[in-house]
Inverse folding.
């Protein structure tokens, strides 16, 4: 069985190694809005009753308008990770899978566990009709690469020729809406798009995402997930927030990103990529920097496949920017 992948957010493990109370740690290891939105009012019946169909449909219509998916009503899922686990069921055994890499590691893990040969490719042009399915994370995690919609559409047509599917993971798409393929989805029959809800709104603990694809694929996902896969409170919250004006949220994220970039520049750290929700740094002493920050009870994301990389998420405010800056100044090069 594949070994579990270490993701961001492991404050409990970090505190066990470096001490300190959990509440005293500054978690910069994830790409999540550090300032969660004010929660909308949730009707008592959403807590009291199983999620009825009208809750699902209301959330789907709100997601369609927010993601601009046209004729497609996105399917709510209990976090896009749950849908990733279902992807191997879509393709015939023996087909190869291509994953534009390096990227979010759970795709390769899910397909390898299901017995598929996974090709980790570095360029879209390396993906062809021999692949039964290809995955492109756009914007990419952790380097923030963005591929133009025209190029992804051409890739879709190439895969479709061989009966293959294109999966575009837009988990960080809310901060780059101009790059989304969702407005074209209804004309691309072998396309599957995943959107994350919790990252942009700062509500990752809600475990909610959306899948955008043709109706029979979404029906398969719904059947495989089983009844009541998404809670009533999550559906109610999605309906409210996806129908709201999100410009202030986007503006806050841009402001926090500017604060982070200033701190990193003053520390002399080289930016290797990122999105508005995180910044990737490349440094030969990344491991030592990581340890120094942990000793100051600040957690960032490191990568076993790229020991010179560190990913910094956003701090909630200027005071925590200053805390990060002070910890970085203490690092002895």
């Amino acid at each position: 069985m594949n070994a579990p992948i270490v993701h961001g957010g492991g404050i409990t493990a970090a505190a066990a190694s470096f001490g300190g109370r959990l509440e005293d740690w500054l978690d910069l290891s994830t790409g999540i809005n550090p300032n969660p939105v004010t929660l909308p009012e949730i009707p008592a019946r959403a807590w009291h009753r199983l999620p009825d169909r009208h809750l699902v449909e209301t959330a789907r219509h709100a997601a369609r308008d927010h993601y601009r998916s046209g004729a497609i009503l996105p399917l709510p899922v209990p976090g896009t990770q749950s849908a990733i686990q279902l992807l191997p069921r879509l393709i015939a055994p023996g087909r190869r899978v291509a994953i534009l890499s390096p990227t979010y590691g759970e795709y390769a893990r899910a397909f390898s566990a299901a017995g598929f040969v996974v090709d980790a490719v570095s360029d879209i042009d390396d993906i062809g009709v021999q692949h039964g399915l290809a995955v492109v994370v756009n914007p990419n995690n952790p380097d923030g690469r963005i591929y133009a919609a025209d190029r992804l559409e051409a890739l879709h047509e190439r895969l479709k020729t061989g009966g293959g599917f294109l999966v575009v993971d837009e988990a960080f798409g809310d901060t780059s809406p101009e790059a989304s393929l969702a407005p074209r989805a209804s004309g691309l029959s072998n396309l599957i798009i995943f959107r994350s809800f919790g990252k942009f709104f700062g509500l990752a603990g809600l475990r909610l995402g959306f899948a955008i694809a043709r109706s029979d694929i979404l029906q398969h996902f719904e059947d495989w997930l089983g009844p009541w896969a998404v809670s009533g409170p999550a559906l109610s919250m999605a309906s409210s927030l996806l129908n709201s004006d999100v410009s202030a949220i986007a503006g806050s994220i841009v402001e926090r990103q500017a604060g982070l970039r200033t701190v990193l520049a003053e520390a002399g750290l080289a930016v290797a990529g990122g999105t508005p929700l995180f910044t990737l740094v490349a440094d030969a002493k990344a491991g030592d920097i990581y340890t120094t920050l942990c000793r100051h009870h600040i957690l960032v994301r490191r990568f076993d496949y790229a020991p010179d990389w560190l990913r910094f998420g956003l701090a909630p405010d200027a005071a925590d920017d200053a805390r990060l800056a002070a910890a970085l100044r203490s690092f002895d090069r």
